[in-house]
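Example record for the data management plan.
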Amino acid sequence: MATPLGAEAATAATAQTGRSGAKIKPTIVLVHGGYADSSCWNGVIPELQREGYITIAGSNPLRGIPTDAPYIGSLLDSISGPVVLVAHSMGGTVITNAAAGKSNVKALVYIAAFVPDVGETQGDLINKFPGSEVLPVSVPVPYTKADGTTGTDLYLSKDGQAAFAVDIPTATFRLLQATQRPFDADSFIYPTQAAAWRTIPSWGLVAGQDKAIPPACERFMYSRANARKVVEVPTASHVVMISQPRIVADLIQDAATATS
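Corresponding structural encoding:
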């Protein structure tokens, strides 16, 4: 049985198809990365909703591939009808693994995101090109895992705006930094188990002033994935979905239209 989210999508799909046989609009699923929560999509969501898209901002556990990918995969399984799956930053690693084998996922959209291949880790990719400045402004905090072992969470410090979000107002950054969800440092060492972009068409956005994932790395990953379209935003920081929500929404709509 579908969840209420899936039922809503199915109802909307029926309404959109109607007697005219019009194309079904996909559900847009948005996945955030580290140092963030689902609210980072708050500027993008209204843009998509105005165009008639059902939009779900999934909550990424930020514990690493073994936890995050099955969790987002279960969300995808709950949705009836086609899905355009969108991710920012570390969320790109999650959707690359989670979407594998999901027949309802019709497009992958990477927003300043990791796009790993099988066997690669985020640590491999972030060190492939120079220019990342975010780890030095991260604060490690130990925590106790369910099995009793000690893990390390990484939080973005109050001094992290220049490395993470230089193109948004300081007040907006302070809110982001105060409401962030940390990620487990081990997220950088888990190897990717599946590369959904090998079978699902992808789109990408390069943030030209990104100092978390270097722009050169983003270009490399999108090219390797044979992305159908790559948009570059020369002035954008890593949080381009906050600073440039319309551009992000337009790219998502391009993917939705092309794969409907």
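Summary line stored alongside the record: Strands lie at 27-31, 55-58, 83-89, 105-113, 138-144, 150-156, 183-184, 202-207, 229-233.
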